[in-house]
Amino acid sequence: MKRASEILQTLTLEEKASLCQGATFWLTKEIAGKGIPEIMMTDGPHGLRKQTGETDHLGVNKSVPATCFPSAAALASSWDRELLEKIGQALGEECLAEQVSILLGPGANIKRSPLCGRNFEYFSEDPFLSSQMAKHHILGVQSMGVGTSLKHFAVNNQETCRMSVNEIVDERTLREIYLASFEAAVREAQPWTIMTAYNQVNGEFCSEHHHLINEVLRGEWGYEGVVVSDWGAVNDQAKGICEGFDLRMPYCGEVMTERLVKAVESGKLPVEKLDETVLRILELIQKGIANKREDAAYDVQAHHLLARQAAEESAVLLKNDAQTLPISKGKKVAVIGAFARFVRYQGGGSSHVIPTQHRSVLQVLDEDYPQLDYAYAPGYRLKKDVVDPFFKAEAASVALNADHIVVFAGLPDGMESEGFDRKHMRLPDNQNDLIEALVQLNKPMTVVLFAGSPVEMAWAKDVQSILCMHTGGQAVAEAVVRLLLGEANPCGKLAESYPLFGSHAPCALTYPQREEAIYSEGVFVGYRYYEKKQLPVRYAFGHGLSYTQFSYADLHLDRDAMLDTDTLQVSFSVTNTGKRVGKEIAQVYVRDVASSVPRPVKELKEFVKVDLQPGESRRVTVTLNKRSFAFYHVGLADWYAESGEYEILVGSASDDIRLRASVQVTSSVTPVKKYNEYITMADLARLEKAAPFLQAMSSTSPAPAMSPEELEAYMNDEDDMREIAMDYAAMGQDMPLIKVADMTAGAFPYALVEQIVRAINEC
Q: Which secondary structure element, helix H or strand E, spans residue 656, and what is its range?
């Protein structure tokens, strides 16, 4: 096969332009006469959605059977880098078996609001956790010679008007939250492609965005792969190519090729830019072809068992009063809820997978646990949110005769899917009504949740245990039964906060917005917001229980002072103090004690998952670098770890900090601030260079001495002119320098203002 650069030289302008869009819904353009074959890309990310008949991008038409692994919302709750790579490898194997070269995913968008309809497909509200999960997913898939498409770049955080909404976000927030979720995955995993989002960011569509693609992605991050559009997410392709965009998907007609040809001929699109794009596309095609294997196959059952393991590792035990779980042997169990028969194991839309196999909870109980004494009642209607008195009475009757009630609840497909956002954070009313009724029976009760996003749980205080299974993939029914019966030990921790109410979310008052979505909450997203507001949550970020217990001890920092160019080694011990084998996810946060800018109370900077036998201890060591302490400084256009004290916080959850220590960081950078005539008098007083000017100003207007009468009035707490003058002096601290000149009738000349501004800006 010829090198891509050699093939490029043989192409006509029309052929080059034709390569810049798909040939069909899923295939790239083939030019057989020039040695350019087609390759296939198809939906993911938690399973293969390869369509062989009618095509669509919303999961409407059928696709080939494939392993449906837990969705990103679930997998992120595993906090397991190794597991993500194993699943990635399995996905790569299935792609090879189906002759698919690029799997579209993973999704690394931040969960700005719990109401985003596509949250089940995204990892976390925290950019560090999200980027780590995305990175290892990509590494796993691409280790098999199959490409990925990291999506949706960028700031795609609502489904409402997703193809047109303008996301208004300041640069610091953009960098620290929304781009940081992609950055490590791009820099350290190098996905073959990156998919641009439909929306605008600060007035510019993502597929044509100069700052996002040209300056950040290709410039700062050094990305050399292909930038591909979400399906139909291109508005001005010629402009996009000038900024570093490459491939429009899907095929949109020959008119698009003609437009690119005319753009080159008119000078709007330099042919050199088109050549760069075509070269990247050719290299992508060759990479896909080079890794094809005609004899590729995969072990269907092994992948199913991996899906079960992933569902178990991702499950989060939210509550377990009095060790209600696991269910003791010999107990008669009431299995209540339509989700026990119709398990919701994935989200709706483009990621909808046809599983290789799938069983309901009832099937698992009947087939694998014939000895278990249980009775079932549906309890509520699944497709219609109305309270059915017959269903409710039947459920109460079944529950009354049981020793342990297990209610299977969650969000139906119609409440959570790609294409629309949730209207509220509640479960269907008929499910809440059922749970509240069953609570009155005063029996041990467990609620099992199937949902890709947080839900309100007003009944949480009244039930003994809550097990969150998220959208847990094709083997979730097997996993949940094993967890309930104690054959597996829950170890997942929440990758997002569960607020008490949807109205408590950071952007609740405005989400979603249709034309302009203004990110007024800034960097305070998820736990960053709840902690800063001191707002209680139902379950905190990082929360998750186990059937065993863990202790933390002996926190050690390898230094107590460092330069921002140094690294910090943080070590501590974790011990399994219980009687069962278990896994603990130790979380390391950093707190800036006294920042010059508003910062979160603390931020996640590392985590480690440890597998421990009863009584076993393990020493854990993590490394923190400059980015662990830094915020994005807009003036520097770089990350800045300012000098000062930082706390290192180690714990089992964001609200469960077990160990803490401090380190002094000295910055190697001194930001230089530029001042103008609107500098306040208070800020001016803090500048050493301004001292001579301020001294001269004060010497020309000495404060008058108090008379005996004024002194007596002052001592007797009476109002007088001196107190009023003091009030005015306090107000004057916020007065801009230029306004002093405005209000002194020439006594303080404008020329002096200019002189002061020049002096304080001198290096």
A: strand 656-666
Q: Is the pLDDT of residue 23 over 80?
A: yes
Instruction: Decide if 103 contacts 91 (C-beta within 8 A).
Output: yes
Residue reference for tokens 């010059």:
596
Helix, strand or coil, per DSSP, at residue 464: coil
Longest dimension (CA), the chain: 105
Angle at 731 between CA 728 and CA 732, to 5 degrees: 85
Using DSSP bridges, classify how beta strands 166-168 and 644-653 pair: parallel, antiparallel or unpaired: unpaired
Are residues 177 and 110 in contact, defined by beta-carbon separation less than 8 angstroms?
Answer: yes
If you write DSSP's letter for every residue of 114-143 in order, what string do you get? Answer: TT-TTGGGB--SSHHHHHHHHHHHHHHHHT
Q: Could you report the per-residue pLDDT of 730-749, keeping only the tens digit for each?
A: 667 888 989 888 888 777 88
Q: Residue 275: helix, strand or coil by DSSP?
A: helix
Cβ burial 282-305 (10 Å sphere, 16+ → b, else e): bbbbbbbeebeeeebebeeeebbe
Q: How high is the mean pLDDT of the chain? A: 94
The dihedral over CA atoms of 177, 179, 185, 187, expressed in degrees to the nearest 10, equals -130
| pLDDT, tens digit (0-9, with 9 covering 90-100), for 177-211 | 999 999 999 999 999 999 999 999 999 999 999 99
State yes or no: cis peptide before 543, omega within 30 of 0: no
pTM of the model: 0.93
Q: Are strands 568-576 and 445-450 parallel, antiparallel or unpaired?
A: unpaired
Q: How far apart are CA 398 and CA 434, in angstroms?
A: 13
Q: In this structure, what is the dihedral angle of CA atoms 8, 148, 109, 500, given to the nearest 10 degrees?
A: 170
Cα–Cα distance measured from residue 538 to residue 616, given in angstroms and rounded to the nearest whole number = 31
Q: Give the angle subtended at the CA of 77 by the CAs of 73 and 82, to the nearest 5°.
A: 110
Q: Pairing state of beta strands 445-450 and 404-410?
A: parallel
Residue type, 411: L
The pLDDT of 690-697, averaged and rounded, is 79
Options 230, 421, 433, 564, the catalytic residue: 230
**Angle of helix 476-485 relative to helix 361-368, nearest 10 degrees?**
60
Say how far apart CA 380 and CA 395 lie, in whole Å. 9
For the question of residue 230 being annotated catalytic, the response is yes
Lowest mean pLDDT among 78-87, 257-266, 551-560, 664-673: 664-673
Backbone angles phi, psi at 80, to 5 degrees: -120, 100
DSSP 3-state of 50? coil
pLDDT grade for 152, boundaries at 50, 70 and 90: very high
550: enclosing H helix or E strand = strand 550-557
- In whole angstroms, give the CA distance from residue 554 to residue 536: 30
| Amino acid 670: pLDDT | 86
In order of their start, the domains of the chain are 4-52+61-290 (3.20.20.300), 300-539 (3.40.50.1700), 550-666 (2.60.40.10), 681-761 (no CATH)
Beta-bridge partners for 516: 166
pLDDT at 657 over 90: yes
In this model, does residue 439 exceed pLDDT 90? yes
Q: Is the dihedral of CA 384, 387, 389, 390 positive or negative?
A: positive
756 vs 119: CA distance, rounded Å = 53
Strands of the sheet containing 582-592, edge to edge, are 561-563, 656-666, 644-653, 582-592, 603-612
Cα–Cα dist 457/450, whole Å: 13
For residue 703, the model assigns a pLDDT of: 44
